[in-house]
Design a protein that fits this description.
It is found in: Cell membrane; Endomembrane system. The chain has 14 helices and five strands. With about 450 residues, it is mostly helical. The protein has one domain. The strands form two sheets. The chain has a three-stranded antiparallel beta sheet, with no helix packed on it. Strands 4-5 form a two-stranded antiparallel ribbon. A hairpin with a 5-residue loop joins strand 1 and strand 2. The termini are far apart.
């Protein structure tokens, strides 16, 4: 352990196990969640793997549908603006985190940032619950999406088979339960590298499939006009923007940066570059090729367009391969979003003075992680229409965490002059995002109401 004198009154120590510079006069002891789950041992490359898995997900298969609501110009414009805005936003978060780390208080969680910058009330009553809802919602969605992929594979070769969707969801829930027992975020680094590769592979499959169908004799007639009445088109625009914004959402940037070993400066930016190189490759290729091939008939997931009634427009092995890639990647995604909930359980029920693998800590860890996954799996089986609810979470949850709070945190921390461009860019992004929260939320609620007549518990759709 080395010691470096920063000033006549403050002494900082470097501890690679705890993962941050500690001001020995003010730094609090790490709780069990920070000490065990958010262990800081990763490189910037590991950070890139975590970021990519947290952002690039099967939700990209909905991007051609967002283009049906926005058109060519609006779709490409918003896809590009969302990429630039979120890259900028996540980099601002990283800068704020680095600043506090240099001051001797490394913030390891979103709620730590809210506590230090805005006050404990914001962390306890707003940021903490909001992040937990998003993460747990994603854990519900993981077995659901995985279960639907698994059911599709099953029906490829056994179309009249007796198994129901909820049974496949339970299978995916069991896999999630096993992954939930991995002790720390850092222990997912190799899984998330595989996840990165899988996301590129299924995006490539979808892109190639769209191009092949678009050039085939089975190519549908293409129409790129917006559908519906003027009111429908107006709500559709905001729905499309919300879909794209949610596709870029993470909500766990501080927790990902917490996995980086010190010194942290500059590492998150490198990780973001890894992540956004994958985003540039996958998002634009899937969105543009899918919309080009199917126009305003693009379904809520583009793979639905690859089947015309009962006729497969591509070989069965293509569907098998693509759905296997999606199934495996979504399991990794679910494991990533389990980490903030796992960390909360460790903080509440763990004892940081005991060993990570002591009986005292292992028993509550296994118990509460297993109960949370079991609850999420039951909800996924009950609510197969959960994507509509997640769109609402995206509007009220992802946009505030990823578009608004980073701007607020930066402006409050660094207090840029009102005469600087950065102040007004941050303020404009936050204000525009707030408007999007309200209108996107209304549009999402409207869509839930419109679809409510098709809802049924434990549906096999």
């Amino acid at each position: 352990m080395g010691t470096v004198t920063r000033s006549s009154s403050e002494v900082y120590t470097s501890d690679s196990e705890k993962g941050f510079a500690i001001n020995t006069s003010t730094a609090p002891e790490l709780d069990a969640g920070a000490k065990f789950v958010l262990v800081s041992r990763g490189s910037w490359l590991h950070c890139g793997y975590h970021l990519t898995t947290s952002i690039v997900a099967p939700v990209i298969l909905t991007l051609p549908f967002s283009f049906t609501l926005l058109g060519w110009v609006g779709g490409v414009l918003w896809l590009t603006l969302a990429a630039l805005t979120t890259f900028y936003s996540y980099n601002l978060l990283s800068i704020v985190l680095e600043h506090h780390a240099q001051l001797g208080r490394r913030q390891l969680r979103f709620r730590d940032m809210a506590t230090d910058i805005l006050g404990p009330g914001w962390a306890k009553y707003y940021v903490g619950p909001l992040q937990f809802a998003i993460c747990f919602g994603t854990v519900i969605g993981g077995p659901l999406v995985g279960g639907k992929s698994l059911k599709f594979i099953y029906q490829l070769y056994n179309p009249d088979g007796p198994m129901k969707l909820y049974q496949f969801i339970i299978i995916c829930g069991v896999v999630t339960l096993i992954l939930a027992q991995l002790p720390s975020f850092h222990s997912l680094r190799h899984i998330n590298l595989i996840s990165l590769i899988l996301s590129v592979m299924y995006a490539t499959c979808v892109t190639v499939g769209s191009i092949v169908i678009g050039h085939s004799k089975d190519a549908p007639p293409r129409n790129y006009s917006l559908r519906g009445s003027n009111v429908d088109q107006l709500f559709g625009v905001f729905n499309g923007i919300s879909i794209i914004a949610t596709a870029y959402a993470s909500g766990i940037i501080p927790e990902i940066q917490a996995t980086v070993a010190p010194p942290v400066k500059g590492k998150m930016l490198k990780g973001l570059c890894v992540c956004y190189s994958v985003i540039a490759t996958t998002y634009f290729s899937v969105a543009i090729s899918g919309y080009w091939a199917f126009g305003n008939q693009s379904g809520s997931t583009i793979l639905a367009n690859f089947v015309d009634g009962t006729k497969f427009l591509l070989p069965k092995w293509f569907f098998f391969m693509t759905n296997i890639f999606i199934l495996l990647q979504v399991m990794a995604l679910t494991a990533v979003y389990l980490q903030p909930t796992n960390e909360l359980f460790e903080t509440t029920f763990g004892d940081p003075k005991m060993g990570q693998f002591s009986i005292r800590n292992v028993v509550p860890r296994v118990l509460f992680r297993s109960l949370s996954v079991a609850a999420a799996t039951v909800l996924a089986a009950m609510l197969p229409f959960f994507p509509d609810i997640m769109a609402l979470f995206g509007a009220f949850g992802c946009i505030p965490l990823d578009f608004i709070l980073p701007m607020v945190f930066y402006n409050v921390t660094f207090k840029p002059s009102k005469y600087t461009i950065k102040f007004w860019v941050n303020t404009l992004i936050a204000a525009a995002s707030l408007i999007l929260v309200v209108i996107g939320g209304i549009a999402s609620i409207r869509q839930i109401v419109l679809d409510a007549k098709t809802y049924s518990l434990f549906s096999d759709m």
